Amino acid sequence: MINTAARAALPDLAEMELADLEQFLAGLGEGRFHARQIYRWAYKRGVTDFHLMSDLSKTLRASLDTGLVLSTPRIVGRDRSSDGTEKFVLEVGPDGGTARRIESVFIPETPAMTFCVSTQVGCAMGCAFCLTGKMGLVRNLTAGEIVGQVRVLAETLALRDTRFNIVLMGMGEPLHNYDETMKALRILANASGLAISPRRVTLSTVGVVPGLDRLTTEPMMPNLAISLHATTEEQRSRLVPLNRKYRIEDVLAACRRLPVKRRDRITFEYVLLDGVNDAPDDARRLVRLLQGIRAKVNLIPLNEAAGIPFGRPADHRVDAFAQILADHRVTVSVRKSRGRDIRAACGQLIVEGQQRSPGQRLASAMSSALSPAGADA
Ligand code: SAH
Ligand code: SF4
Question: Ligand 1 pocket, 347 CB below 6 A?
Fold first, then answer.
């Protein structure tokens, strides 16, 4: 019997790409081909106990049991909204004794099933209307923890054999945790595992320009959603502090550099704040900014919450804004907020008790903004 401390030091299957697992097996003197079998058990069938992987030899199962772990986030809270949206509070870690909590959300039939997953515990970016931003960054999630959310939701909701989409719109800024996020996409895409193509994944970013540029070098490009939210540099800098480093013009220039295929479009998310960025002039400026980009705009009327110093515009203002875009042939949709009654909507994800001080938050937002590739540390 191996004790918990010794187990924690073992290599973790959750963090292994297929090639890593092949190498691990070779180290055990076992055939590399077993990697695909193990991946199938863990990802396609949801089996986490090596002893139950019945097409492996008894010897191999025993070696796996003593030499490898498979970490899986633990469900510590689950809330179902009247509209069918479900919020999961998951625990990862423990980090030296402190378990970390994150949130993942299941959104049914919109029209596709969607899993909204987190890429960080908290977020360093401090956007003025986002509760996650108020937490500051606690830590990055590992690739295994990002994929683990998908495994847990698929298993718990019995959706392993159903097609679903993934949006990286939970807690955190994915391009501020670039390497682990991209590794997670590779694990998710593996044909022996969940086989979720990057075309079914949307990465939402506040516009970390070096990260956007790095994406152009990736063999696997997810769909992109850029959180724009404002049409003048001055206004965006107030709402999105990262704009002081990567301005609207820099973010849009990076978008123009992306190798977007003919049928692809970049989504621009725009949170509408009552009386702040929702005037007809804002809509007209937005049309001009997006000229020459294959864009679609997703308007998100603010999800209000205590601690967010803005209001949600009335429906007629949202409609008028959308109409101006549509009149100028910009594809536009208005996001129906799901799960507001359980605080599962965009920007409402926060886990109590993990906040850092505002000073720390600003410091980390600015220091990360100044590092290359969005401070992948
Ligand atoms: N950090 C990434 C992804 C997570 S946030 C990003 O910012 O894009 C996902 C989306 O939720 C973003 O578009 C963000 O602007 C939006 N959002 C944040 N707070 C919100 C709120 N209170 N109401 C509505 N949308 C919000
Ligand atoms: Fe971070 Fe996105 Fe929230 Fe901004 S909107 S604080 S980038 S999670």
Answer: yes
Tokens of 75: 């469900």
Q: Which domains, and CATH codes, for the chain? A: 12-67 (1.10.150.530), 74-370 (3.20.20.70)
Which residues, in sequence order, are CB contacts of 152 under 8 Å at separation 6+? Answer: 72, 73, 75, 88, 90, 104
Q: Please state, rounded to an integer, the average pLDDT across all residues of the chain.
A: 89
117: phi then psi, degrees, rounded to nearest 5 = -120, 160
Q: Ligand 2 pocket, 38 CB below 6 A? A: no
Quick: pLDDT tens for 314-329.
999 999 999 999 999 9
Please tell me the distance between residue 320's alpha carbon and the centre of ligand 2 in angstroms.
26
CA angle, residues 185, 191, 196, in degrees to nearest 5: 45
Q: Are 70 and 14 in contact (CB under 8 A)?
A: yes
| DSSP string of 231-297, one letter each residue | SSHHHHHHH-GGGGTS-HHHHHHHHHHS---TT--EEEEEEE-TTTS-SHHHHHHHHHHTTTS-EEE
What global pTM score does this model have?
0.91
Measured in degrees and rounded to the nearest 5, phi and psi for residue 238 equal -75, -35
